[in-house]
Amino acid sequence: MMGLREFLVAGVLAVNAFVSAHVVDNGTTITTSLRYNVTTANLLEKRMEHSSIHCALPDHPDIIAVTRTLGNDGWAQSYDRPCSSGNWCPYACASGKLMNQWNPASVAYVHPDMEQGGLYCGEDGIAHIPFPDRDFCVEAPAKLATRNLLDNHVMICQTVLPGDEGMRIPNRIEPGQSLGLGVPDSHYWAGTSASLYINYPGVEVDDACVWGNNTFRAGNWAPYTLGLSMREDGEIFANLGWNPIWLEPTTPFRNEVPPFGARIICEGVGCHDTPCEINPANGVNQVIAGSNGLIGVGGAAACIVTAPQTAELRMELFYN
Fold first, then answer.
1. Where is coiled-coil annotated (predicted)?
2. Apex 99 CA angle, 98 and 104, nearest 5
3. Tell me: the pLDDT tens digits for 28-86?
4. Distance (Å, rounded) from C-alpha 36 to C-alpha 239?
5. What is the distance of C-alpha 9 from the center of its chain?
6. Less CB within 10 Å around the terminal CB: N or C of the chain?
7. Is the dihedral of CA 156, 181, 66, 124 positive or negative?
């Protein structure tokens, strides 16, 4: 009987790749080139041989370590998955900034391109920078100022793209404080928008910014979602809605009314489609909206506000 190795060798698939990168190692930056020409069987062998080789998260003021104590060593990927050799490893940037590194060959929102964000972990245990002329993170072209009117902090967790689309990028807003959430424009990776989950007040990052389950109202089971994007002409789109997962028949708290709400406010010339507000006083899966109201995926109610960059667009988190 043909073993696994023989089966893979029989179906050899040559893979050629070239990566020109800088190497980050204890603060020293050098230029290197990596070239691969391996078969499918070689890929499997190398993955098994080097899975124990891990790359450290760079120490940089723009990079935020995510759930470092849970096993991912701070990288913006599954809480129990370190950055292993042979893999692309995404990272979280400070609020208002966007990850600015990914596989140069990954240009489309398709598998596996969409999962190849961040730095490349080499077999030398060093994280390689694919775009040496870029910073780790870049200022978002626009920001949604978000004010926390609650009496506890709120974690708003952004999904990782390019990456595994887990809500791993933390934005912590203290009570009475404001924070700018980054709005990507049409030139960002594959033209993708920012998707965020708004957690209950008081939930800590290790619960808020991970894929969880329906035993806890956090992470992908947070009550509200937010989408941010910018069109080619500079028009900003902010989409506020109920989380479809909150409404699923198997969610035990699907009829529970969260103790807080969210509203998007726009002031100035060019504001369109206000009001846009989730006020739980009106019940589950209800929004206050004009012509901008919609029913999205899973029957979740939402509303969209559009505005030019010259207008003042902001969000508030408030109690009922």
1. none
2. 135
3. 333 333 333 333 334 333 444 445 799 999 999 999 999 877 889 999 999 889 999 99
4. 43
5. 37
6. N
7. positive
What φ, ψ does residue 108 adopt, rounded to 5°?
Answer: -135, 150
The Cα–Cα gap between 34 and 69 comes to 31
Q: What is the pLDDT of residues 132-181, one digit of tens each?
A: 999 999 999 999 999 999 999 999 999 999 999 999 999 999 999 999 99
DSSP string for 25-76: ETTEEEEEEEEEEE-HHHHHHHHHHHTT-B-PPP--TTEE-BSGGGTTTB-S
Q: How many domains does the chain have?
A: 2
User: Could you write out the DSSP letters of every residue in the chain?
Assistant: ---HHHHHHHT---EEEEEEEEEEETTEEEEEEEEEEE-HHHHHHHHHHHTT-B-PPP--TTEE-BSGGGTTTB-SS-TT---BTTSEE--EEPTTEEE--B-TT--SSSTTGGG-BSEEE-TTS-EEES-TTS-SEEE-SEEEEEEE-SSS-EEEEEEPTTTT--EEEEEEE-TT-EEEEEE--TTSGGG--EEEEEPPTT--HHHHTS---TTSSSGGG-SEEEEEEE-TTS-EEEEEEE-GGGGSTT-TTTTPPPSEEEEEEEESTT-BS--EEE-GGG-TT--EESTTEEE-GGG-EEEEEEE-TTSEEEEEEEE-
CA distance 112 to 115: 6
Task: Find the helix or strand (DSSP H, E) in which 205 lies.
Answer: helix 205-208
* Residues of the domain holding 77: 13-137
Q: Provide CB contacts within 8 A for 108, sequence distance 6+.
A: 114, 190
Q: Is residue 2 part of a domain?
A: no
Q: Is 157 in contact with 212 (CB distance < 8 Å)?
A: no
Q: Which helix (H) or strand (E) holds 242?
A: strand 236-242
Enclosing H/E stretch for 4? helix 4-10
Residues 184 and 256 occupy one common structural domain:
yes
Q: Are residues 189 and 125 in the same domain?
A: no
